[in-house]
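FORM 7B - TANDEM STRUCTURE REPORT

SECTION 1: FIRST PROTEIN
SEQUENCE AND TOKENS:
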Amino acid sequence: MKKLLFAIPAALLLSAPAVSSEQITLTEKQQTELDKRLEGRTAGEPRSCINRNDQRNMTVISDDILIFGSNRNAKTIYVNKPHGGCYNADNSILSYSKPTSSLCRGETVQLIDHGTRASMGSCAFGEFVPYTKDAD
């Protein structure tokens, strides 16, 4: 069953996003938001982990793209593509099983419904791609 859950999102990957060579599908609104967040920034080498300060201000672009440190004035933001997606992350509270000073690739978070506080599933983070503001 787990293999099937990972195969379905992979089969839906149809158009190339701005964040990697893996193909995903974004709505026009999602693509516009992603482009706006990445405008004037250059991608760096992917990182396995980000520190606690960089975990603030998470923005959900889609089930397949999360941005950390997404304060528009932040010098560097981190784009993450959770393995197999993170279904319904924009309507959930992310609950970390073991809060640490860093958030790393492969770490799993539970998705908790805002209203009912029921578990809505989980997702595992991919690599964190830094996007740094270009020098003016």
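SECTION 2: SECOND PROTEIN
SEQUENCE AND TOKENS:
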Amino acid sequence: MRKIGFDGGHSIYELGPAPDVALFFDCLNAYTEETNHAQDWSLLTDRLYRRYLRREELEPALALMVQVREIFTQKPAASSVEWDAAMLANPEKSWLNPSQPTLADVFSKYFESFASACGSAKSLFDAFDIYQPVRVVISDLAGFARDKNKPLAEYDSLEGEPVWLRE
């Protein structure tokens, strides 16, 4: 099963199988819209999900992700998601633990990894004046090697599913 992670700067932070990461973004979409539909969440729901974050978008995206974590803290894990028992019974199919008290706990690695990817992108830029965008990537070597050198313009024009969800 394809593994997915956050890429930023000089590091990849592996999150787990693609369905787990898709579930994170499904929850992000559902609960941010429900909690604060007037706010623009597109830095996370479009830019991060489907494309990449530009350098000037890092701080605003980090601030939004802090808000998402706060929203997820209010959502009990057991009743906020319909957990697929077959998926969760097999650690190869899911790295998530739905027995955690809240969605923030279930996805804590995602929040920490996102902050780390943003920090890595900033440090690479500060040290070498090179910005390697923060984005969601296939984290296994073959998939990452294939997608690493795709022009950013290809991501900018992307419609539909993100690259990391395509076969």
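SECTION 3: OBSERVATIONS ON SECOND PROTEIN
The first helix runs from residue 18 to 35.
The CA atoms of residues 30 and 108 lie 18 Å apart.

SECTION 4: SIGNATURE
Preparer initials: ____
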